[in-house]
């Protein structure tokens, strides 16, 4: 199997990268494939190859720099809206190589592509209330890093996070929301008695806790970190200014 940038190579990637493409190929394999269909598949593969040859590997530090530069443009209202052209749509339709992955809160005020001023195919974004490192979130991020080649994961929490605020209250939660809150409680319980700024410190503690859970609960992510192919970074989004700050761990 060929490898790109230390990760799984292009043919395998092409098969895995687009669920739509995979579905089409699989369904065609189940019946007789016409000449035209074969040609279509071959030309798609050729296009994917063309994209691969243009791919520029981005190190974890470079990936983080690109994100922070984009956030700076967003804060200063100097957005460039990169990678959103019709050409870009066609290019990434064949394969994706997102340079960064985000584990962010589902909060409607923190959309990753907007706050980092990025476009199609740039970010692999997993959003869930409280930026919780759930089993599904970890699986998605393993795919982003180990298969698609993202070299940084940013765990992005935000000020006044409703999920964290709920975890600070000792009240029963109805429905599946309780599952999310239970996954935040261990983070906030630790700091409850040691801070005089509970709302902000609880958010930060939760971001750090979920970042740690990613590597503690995934041998794949932990291995990529040991091999210097991945960094997991904690970051806080300021709802009032739009700025993203890196949290030192
Ligand atoms: Zn939130």
From TrEMBL:
Molecular function terms, GO-annotated: carbonate dehydratase activity; zinc ion binding
Catalytic activities: hydrogencarbonate + H(+) = CO2 + H2O
GO biological process: carbon utilization
Highest taxon above the source species: Bacteria
Keyword Lyase tagged: yes
Stored InterPro entries: Carbonic_anhydrase, Carbonic_anhydrase_CS, Carbonic_anhydrase_sf
Cofactor note text: Binds 1 zinc ion per subunit.
SMART domains reported in the protein's UniProt record: Pro_CA (SM00947)
Family that this chain belongs to: Belongs to the beta-class carbonic anhydrase family.
Protein name: carbonic anhydrase
